[in-house]
Amino acid sequence: MIRLDRVVTLSFAASRRSDTRLSGRIPVLMYHGISHDEDTGRHPYYRTVTSPQVFEKQMAHLHRSGYSTIGVHQIRREVEGPAESAQLVSITFDDGYHDFYVHAFPVLKKYGFTATVFLPSQFIAHQRRQFRGRECMTWNEVRELKESGISFGSHTVTHPQLRELDASDVKSEVSGSKCSIEQELGAPVDSFAYPYAFPEEDTEFKGRLRGILADAGYTCGVCTSVGRVTKQSDPYFMRRLPVNSCDDIRLFDAKLRGAYDWVSHPQKWAKSVKSWLR
Ligand SMILES: [Zn+2]
Question: Please, what is the average pLDDT of the chain?
Answer without folding.
Answer: 91
